[in-house]
């Protein structure tokens, strides 16, 4: 993984407390409803791990950042949580039925990661990459994205991350809409959990803090509200092992 991907460790607990989970319908679309053995690759603090458990699956989590793994281990003490990366997966050949990647595929080095994911999957296994993306069709969310930048990765109608052959079939895309309720005064925390904030200099972080606070206190959809429903679209791509 690239170094910005490893910027989250210093704020692992904040990340875990404010980032959205993944809706079970998106997981079902991606890997099916029947319980299977799943590798959560680039698992972070285990947000997707918890959703996979909720959908009935057996989960093994792999994450390169020690601080993120520590939070995941607290959240999911009965789950195997291993040190490793997409480019060096610490599992035997053909040992899982599905590999699911939440909010992390764009950090991978595909020419190294794709053969590894192919190796650990059983015959006809599924690889699914998914992203929770703020829904900018909501005006206040569009205003937020105007301040912090859009979350465009994963929303293209065609797979944007290069060829997956000869390891996998052509990706199919599915969208699932959902909302996550957060305290209005934690809108800044949502942005502080992003790599772009964590790697920004102090002046840029101060600008973001200031402008987001102003949005939360002046936008009619947000002002004087204790909580807000943040709309998301979960974009998932699925492909089969060849």
Automatic annotation (TrEMBL):
Top-rank taxon: Bacteria
**What InterPro entries does its record include?**
Diverse_substrate_MTase, Methyltransf_11, rRNA_Ade_Mease_Trfase_CS, SAM-dependent_MTases_sf
Q: What is this protein called?
A: Class I SAM-dependent methyltransferase
Q: Which PROSITE patterns match?
A: RRNA_A_DIMETH
Q: Which UniProt keywords apply?
A: Methyltransferase, Transferase
Record-stated family: Belongs to the methyltransferase superfamily.
Which SUPFAM superfamilies does the entry link to?
Answer: S-adenosyl-L-methionine-dependent methyltransferases
Gene Ontology MF term list: methyltransferase activity
């Amino acid at each position: 993984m690239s170094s910005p991907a490893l910027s989250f460790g210093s704020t692992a607990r904040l990340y875990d407390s404010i980032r959205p989970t993944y809706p079970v319908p998106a997981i079902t679309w991606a890997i099916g409803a029947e319980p299977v053995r799943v590798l959560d690759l680039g698992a972070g603090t285990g947000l997707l791990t918890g959703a996979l458990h909720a959908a009935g699956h057996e989960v093994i989590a792999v994450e390169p950042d020690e601080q993120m793994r520590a939070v995941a281990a607290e959240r999911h003490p009965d789950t195997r949580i291993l040190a490793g990366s997409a480019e060096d997966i610490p599992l035997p050949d053909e040992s899982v039925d599905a590999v699911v990647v939440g909010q992390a595929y764009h950090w991978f080095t595909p020419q190294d990661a794709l053969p590894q994911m192919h190796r650990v999957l059983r015959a006809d296994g599924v690889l699914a990459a998914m992203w929770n993306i703020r829904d900018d069709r909501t005006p206040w969310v569009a205003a937020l994205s105007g301040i912090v930048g859009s979350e465009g990765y994963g929303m293209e109608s065609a797979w944007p991350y290069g060829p997956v052959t000869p390891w996998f079939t052509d990706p199919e895309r599915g969208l699932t809409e959902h909302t996550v309720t957060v305290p209005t005064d934690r809108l800044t925390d949502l942005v502080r959990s992003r790599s772009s904030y964590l790697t920004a200099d102090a002046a840029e972080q101060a600008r973001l803090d200031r402008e987001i606070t102003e949005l939360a206190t002046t936008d009619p959809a947000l002002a004087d509200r204790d909580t807000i429903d943040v709309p998301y679209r979960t974009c998932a791509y699925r492909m089969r092992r060849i």
